[in-house]
Amino acid sequence: xxxxxxxxxxxxIVKIDDISGPREWAIRAAAIIAALLLCAVITTILTGxxxxxxxxxxIEGAFGSQRKTWITLxxxxxxxIISLALTPAFKMQFWNIGGEGxxxxxxxxxAACMICIGDSLPNYLVIIxxxxxxxAAGAIWGLIPAxxxxxxxxxxxxxxxxxxxxxxxxxxxxxxxxEVPKGSGKIGIINxxxxxxxxxxxxxxxxxxxxxxxxxxxxxxxxxKYTKQGYEIAVVGQSQNTAVYVxxxxxxxxxxxxxLSGALCGLAGLLLVGGINHTITTTIADGQGFxxxxxxxxxxFNPIAMVATSFLIILMDRGAxxxxxxxGLNQSFADILTGILLFxxxxxxxxxxxxxxxxxxxxxxRESK
Amino acid sequence: xxxxxxxxxxxIQQGIPLMYGSCGETITEKSGNLNLGIPGVMYVxxxxxxxxxxxxxxxxxxxxxxxxxxxxxPLVCSLVGSLIMGLIYSFLTVTLRSNQNVTGLAMTTFGxxxxxxxxxxxxxxxxxxxxxxxxSETSSYFSKSLPFxxxxxxxxxxxxxxxxxxxxxxIISLYTSFVLKYTRTGLHLRAVGESPATADAAGINVTxxxxxxxxxxxxxxxxxxxxxxxxxxxxxWSNDAFGDRGWLAIxxxxxxxxxxxxxxxxxxxxxxxxxxxxxxxxxxDHMELKELYKxxxxxxxxxxxxxxxxxxxxxxxxxxxxxxxxxREER
Lengths: 369, 331
What we know:
A: 369 residues, mainly alpha, ABC transporter involved in vitamin B12 uptake, BtuC, two-stranded antiparallel ribbon, B: mainly alpha, 14 helices, globular
C-alpha cells in the first residue's frame, strides 16, 4: 500500500467544466502580458533599446499620427472581415485555410471588371457588377472544396490550400496579361485618370472598409446566434451524427456555409482592390487568410472577441513594422513577434480548460484513511 | 523535346526538399499529430544552418575551412533549430492540448518570419562586413558529388551528381518506411496514431511517442531546408526563395498515402512538375502562359486528393486519430 502511494504522481490534471467570466479574461490577459514581456526582451536584445521605448515605438507605429491611426483601423477591419468570413466554416469544423485564395480571386474579379468594363459603362453600374462578380468569384472558390468535402469527404485543409495556389497563379497570369507598361511585371494603379470602378469615399478614404466590417460583425453575430442556419452549423460542428439524426442535411449545410464563407472573403478582396489599393498583386492578401484562421479560433468564434484579437494582431504588426524601420531591421520582425504572441495565447487555452491539482501529503493521508 | 538527361537531375534536386519534408511529416502524422507548421520548420532548419555556418565562416575569415566542421556545424545548428520548433509544437499540442491546426499555422507564421528576419538582418545584427549572405565555401562541401560522377555520362548525371544530403534523404525515407512497417517501434507508433486510447491501455507511452515522433519529424523536415539553401541554392539565402515547398510537402504526404518509400518517387515527380514550366513551350509573345504552367503541381495535388477520397480504400486512409489530441481522462 505504502509502496503504491509513493508512486503517485506529483500532480494531476482535472478538466474544468465551465469557467467563470472574470477568471477567463484574467488568464488571457496574463498570457498576453507575458508574451509582450518576452517580445520586449527579444527586441531589446536585438536592438539594444530599452523596453519602455520599444512599447512607445509600437504604440507610435500604430497610432502616431492621424493617418497612421486610420490605416491601423483600416487594416483591422480587413483582417476582421476575413476572420469573420472564415468563422461559420470553422464553427462547422470545416478547416477553411483557403481564405487567402478566396480573397485573391475576389480581388481578381474586381480588377477584371475595372479593366475590362471600367470605361464603357457608367460608374455606378461598374461598381455593382464588380461587387457581384467579386462575391460570386469568392463563393465559387469556397464552393469547390466544399462540394468535394460534402460528396466524398475530401480533406478540406489541403484542398483549400491548393486552391490558394491556383488563385495565386491565376493572378500572376493576369498580372502579365494586363501589365502596364509591357514588361514591367505589374499592373500599377488601375484607371488612375478616370477612377472608374474605384469604390466611393464615405467621409474619408479609410472609412468604407471600417463600416463594412462593422456591418459584417453584426451580421455574423446574429447569423450564428439567432438564425436556424446558424444553429444547424453549430450542430454539424459538434457532431455530424447528431445532425444526421435530427434530419439536418449535412452536405447542404457544408456547401451553403462555404459559399457564405467564400463570398465574404471575396468581398474583402473587392475592398482591397476597389477601395484601398486600386491594383492587384499576388501578395495583396498578405497572409491574412492564415492569420484570420488564428484570429477566429482564438476568439472562440465569437465575433465581438474577434474585434479584440484582430486589434491585438494588427497592433503588433504595425508596431513591429515601426521598430524594424527605426532600427533598419527586416520587416519580417513583425511575424516573429506575432508568432510569439500566438504561442502564448494558444498555450493559455490549456489553463482555461484544465486545472492542475497537486497531490499534497496531507490530502493523501486523509484519502488513505 | 525535353532533354531528359538534363531534366531528371533538376527534378531530383527540386524533389529532395519535398522528400525530407514529406518524410518528416509522415513520421509526425503517424503519431496522430497533423503538423501544419512544417513550412515554418523548414525555414527554421534552413536559416539555422545558415546562421551556424555564417559565424563559422566569419570566424575563419580568409583561412580555409575545416571540411568536417564546415559540414558538421550547419548540420547540428539546423537539427537543433528544427528540434526546438518540434518541441514547441509538441509542448503546445501534446502537453497543453491546443488545437493542432492553429498551433501549426502559428508555427508557420513564426518560422517563415524567423527565416526571413535573420536572412535579412543577420549581417546587420552581427556587424559583419559582407554585402550579402553567400556561403559558397560551405556550400561547396555540401554539394560535392562523387569524384568519378562526371566521367560516367548520362548515368553519372542522373544518379551520382548530387551532394550527400540527397542520398541521406533517400536513406532516411527507406529507413523510415522499414521502421514503420517491420519494427515494434513502428507498430507502437502506428497504434498511437490510430487509437491512442487503445495504445495507452496496451501500456504504450502515448505522450512519449507523440513527442519523439513530432521532434524527429521536424528534424528531418528541417534538413530539407538545409539542403535547399546549402546545396540547391549554393549557400545563398534569399528571403522567401524557399516559397511554398513546405505546403507541397504536406500535400505530398497524402499523395504518398503515408508511405515514405513511395515518397521518394512522388517527390521527384513533384519536383519535375515544379520546374516543368521551364520546359514547356510558350513562344516569345506568350510569356504569361508560364504562370499558368506553374499551377500544374497544385492542380495535380488537388485532383489526386479528390481521387483518393473518392476511391476511399481502407489501407489508404490517414491515421484515424489524425488532428485530435489525446487526454486520458476524457475518454
